Amino acid sequence: MRQPASSSSQEAYELARDFHEQSFEYSRRPDLTSQYPRVSLEDLQKTQLLGSGAFATVVAVRVTSEASLEQTQQKRSRQVSNISSCSTQIIDCSADDELFGEEDQEQQQQDRYALKQLKSSLDQEDLHRAVADLVTEARLLAEINHPHIVRLRAISSGPKFDKGFFIVIDRFRATLVKRIEEWKMEEKHISGLKGRMHDWNGHRRTALFQERLRAARDLGSALQYLHENRIVFRDLKEENVAFDKDGQIQLFDFGLAKELPKLRHKDDLYNMTPHTGTLKYMAPEVALGQPYNESCDVYSFAILLWEMLSLKRAFSAHTNKEIEESVVRPPFKRPTRNQSWPQELSFMMHKAWSPRICDRPSSKEMELMLMDLCLEDNLQNKRHSIVVHKSLSIRKSKLHLFHHKRSGHSDHHQHPHQDTDDCCSSSNQDHENEDPLLSVSVH
Ligand SMILES: Nc1ncnc2c1ncn2[C@@H]1O[C@H](COP(=O)(O)OP(=O)(O)O)[C@@H](O)[C@H]1O
Ligand SMILES: [Mg+2]
């Protein structure tokens, strides 16, 4: 393998490798990246800038060489095909929040991959961290196989711990940020006078809510899969979730993810890098530099779930300093939950964003509840309210059990429907957004 030439880049290479190895310090799994096609930039034609994060830019590409990005993992079901050869060329480099924007179907089909590479503007200090994160992302994606997690297609044929390293993944249609904007527009449309007349029975509004619930369920299944495989994601947020060409929700950006030991420690908490991720989604224990585990993703998922259901941004009026002072620390402010949401969903959210790890449900429990709600939401309105009414009491008692089981060593027992740590919400419920059907189901 070619090594970076100069001594400073050699240093950056070693630092990057050290950082990368930290993410796999507990790992016993082999590195599967060697099973993926290796491509060079000459094999790819860049067509459009799709977005950028702190360290990386992502560009739509089509494969121009005879080399195909054929699937390498046996279990993977979807296929990719070969495209003919020409050299790397930027056709359109305008930053585009629309992602697919006005492109026609054919072009979308051709440019269905995305190239993630490091920004050229990174200073030396950020470089080793960024390289390490991208190599970590490649290694984790190489072993992941889930319908709601982005698929790795190829990796750079150059050296791994180098600023030129890149990965090729499937391209998305729109990020969750954009999708939430679209949902908001649709909600606004049907809430107007004309909209209400067309949607007099509230079916459209209910269907929109259910669509969001199903997307949350699928995202929850991706999270549960990661946790089952002892991977903590650590950066769950709207910006790292998208929808693919088939409208399926996808989790991506695994730069901060880390493998946990296969066998759980007695308390199952680990000293990992503090302050990892984005503050408003960050579990208090991570922000405070305390030991943590995959439950930090459950916290982030609760905030994200609230955003998907309320169509608002959490803590939008708070500065980072205010979040540090009153969200991470007492009084542990949390977003206002809508009274019309199913009670068990609201309760689960409340437990999931608890500052205490032991109060939180597991991602499996969250996924199961969302699956359950999505099954119920297929029922007809009238039947729905009756069935939900009945099953609620059963499930509430189950949740009570789970609450007591998990908070066994907590000195703070709270009634499930009290919102004492929810100081943004309890006095300020948002009735405007009440869903007519769902409000029936939560008596
Ligand atoms: N596969 C993709 N298809 C379309 N857009 C993407 C894709 N991957 C990333 N993006 C866009 O690029 C942005 C940055 O990508 P991301 O992987 O999150 O980089 P970073 O690690 O720097 O945060 C995303 O928020 C999204 O807008
Ligand atoms: Mg990102």
TrEMBL record:
Lineage top rank: taxon:
Eukaryota
Residue ranges, annotated region (Disordered): 405-443
* Organism per entry: Cylindrotheca closterium
Xref: SUPFAM superfamilies: Protein kinase-like (PK-like)
Give one Pfam hit by family name.
Pkinase
Q: Where is the composition biased (Basic and acidic residues)?
A: 408-420
Q: What is the lineage of its organism?
A: Eukaryota, Sar, Stramenopiles, Ochrophyta, Bacillariophyta
Enumerate the InterPro entries for this protein: Kinase-like_dom_sf, Prot_kinase_dom, Ser/Thr_Kinases-Pseudokinases
Provide a Gene Ontology MF annotation, just one.
Answer: protein serine/threonine kinase activity
Ranges for domain Protein kinase come to 44-387
Q: Which SMART domains match?
A: S_TKc
Q: What is this protein called?
A: Protein kinase domain-containing protein
